[in-house]
Every structure is written in structure tokens, then in C-alpha cells.
Amino acid sequence: MWARPAQKPRGFSKRDQVGFSSSTRRTGSRTAHLGEAMDQLVDCLTKEKFFKRLIVILAGYDEDINRLMASNPGLTSRFSETVTFKNLSPSQCWVLLRDSLGQVHQVDHAVVRQPDGQFHALILASFEHLSTLPGWGNGRDVKTISDTIIRRVFSCPLDEGQTQMVITEKMVSAVLQSTVLERQLRATATVPNLPTSLAAMPAMAGPHHAAPSFTAASWAKQQDNGSTPPDTDSGAATPTEADLNGPRDPGVSNEVWDQLQADRKQHDAQIMHDAEIINEEKALRKKLDNNSEMPDDDERRQYEELIRSLVRQMFEIEERKKKEEEAQRKLREMRVCPMGYRWIPQATGYRCAGGSHFVSSAQLGL
């Protein structure tokens, strides 16, 4: 909005003597009105009759402001001051969520008033991860998370003998998990730019492997139940590891083959490292559960910091696993390798285990 200049630009209304625009997403978007809006803005900033009489404030996300400035190089020098509003810290988000949930008096929210160390660390790690994703709205999104939790509470029927609705750790963890996954999907949603020759190939029907949902509790439960995966359908023929790795294809050079083997070892080592992180979290959780003595403040802080670090790494593991599964799914559908060998990630793409077929990350839209 613009206010009381000698000549009011079209499309802006009066308000004091300060021009304020909080619609930088629309101003900086690629629309037919962009040129006209930018011309008006630059014109008002450069006219002598408006010199030192017009204050213009642009408010918006960093990406939108940068895109707006890039549309006209002369704009940057016209705005001499920048006020950056940092994201709320994970602790501030947690306090805001706790207070927001506490305003609903019909619900028992003891679990968020006095959370245990592991649950508290999980919440802080979730907010820390969310704050790194594009479009994080701080207090607005925390309020949305709070409202979602309350809706989930009211949608759950009361158990027999239960007189009051209760917020549980499972509900809070599930909402935070779904929010993280939703924001990750938004941030990584791209349309693959496949070559014409590959895009025209018929898709091979294959099993869809859905990415497992994430919570620290679900990981711990999987570990408690053992690391052996559930039995698959005995009637289905499952390829062995040797079948997926396959022999060296004819014509593959020593240089390509040696690099492929090195990348395979590195990929397998990463998988083992991820498993160690999950086991470490499990061991720490058991240690806390089996500790009959109440830890002092220093020990509690150390435990919480360690759990937060592990949970952050577990988020990264889950995100990396999802991307890998998506890449493998696309590779199967493209049917570049007729033998169906395993695909090994490399620096700039994926190569089949036989060595003769390569698909770049750009072709996969990664």
C-alpha cells in the first residue's frame, strides 16, 4: 500500500505517509502486470518530487524479495536498509505450541505441559528441521500444527471409562511427522525432464515401495521387534543379491568398472552407518528407560542434546531413503537396463551394476 504521495500510483491505497507493500509474491511473480508494476515503483522512487517524501517498505519471503530485485537491477540500490526477521528457535516454537494447546481447556494436555526428555527432544528436532524447509511460517505454522492436533483429539472416540479427551505423544508425533513430510514433498516436487527417447519408452510395471512413515517411536518399535524384515509372499520370486548386482557387462572399461565398485562400497557403507545411528538411538532410549535414578540437570541436558542430534540424523536418513527409493522406482520404469540389475548411485547419476548403462540425475529430475 502507498500513501499520500503527490501523485498516487495506480493500484495502491492511502495509508499515512509510508508506502508499504506486503504482496511481493504477486509483485515479483511472472505475470502480465509485472512490467507495469515495476515501472510504477521505479518511477516513484526516481522522481524528484517524491525525493525524501516517500518511504517504501517491501515485506516478503527472501526468495520473493530476491526475485523482485532481480527483475530490475536498479531496485537494489534504492532500498538501502534490510530488516531480516529470523525464524523462531525450536524452543520458542515449542513454547508457542504448548501454550496454544493449553488454551483448549476441554482437553487434557499434561503430556505437553511436562514432556519427558526423549519426547521433548523429538519435538525440538522436528521444529528445527521444519525451520530449514522453504516456506516455513513460524508462528502461523505452529498454530496450524496446534489446530491439527486438537482436531485429531476431538476425532478420537473416548475409551471406556474415559471422561476427558487426552493429547497423547503419538498424536503430537504423528502431526509433526506428517507436517515434515508434507513440507519435504513441496520442497522437492519437480517435474522430471527426461530425454525424448527415454520418456517415450513404455513404463514397466513394478511394485510400488511406499516410503515408511517416520517417528522416533516407530523406529524404536521396529528395533525392539528385531531387524528381520517381514516375510514376503513365498509364491513371488525374489531376486537374490547376486542377481541384482550381476556380472561385469562386456565392453565396460576398467576405469568405469573400478569407479562403480568404489561407489558401491561407499553406498553400502552409508547404509551400515545409517543402521548404526538407529541402533544408537535405540540403545540410548533403553538406557533412559532402565535408569531408575532421576538424572540431574546436567545429565538431562546432555541426554536431550544427544537425542536431538540423533533425531536430526534420523530425519536425514529418512529423507535420503525416500529420495533413493524414488530414484530406483523411476529407473525401473525407464527400463534402461534390460537385465534389471541394481542401480548404484554415483557423483552425477546412477549406473547399473553391470556397468554399461548410466542415467544422470538431471534425467531423473533429481
Automatic annotation (TrEMBL):
Q: Does the keyword Coiled coil apply?
A: yes
Sorted alphabetically, which keywords does the UniProt record give? ATP-binding, Coiled coil, Nucleotide-binding
What ranges does the record give for the region Disordered, renumbered to this chain?
Answer: 1-31, 217-254
Coiled coil: which residue ranges? Answer: 300-334
Q: Name one GO molecular function term.
A: ATP hydrolysis activity
Q: Which residues cross the membrane?
A: none
Polar residues composition bias: residue spans: 220-237
Q: Where is the composition biased (Low complexity)?
A: 21-31
The protein, known as:
AAA family ATPase
Q: Which organism is it from?
A: Aspergillus kawachii (White koji mold)
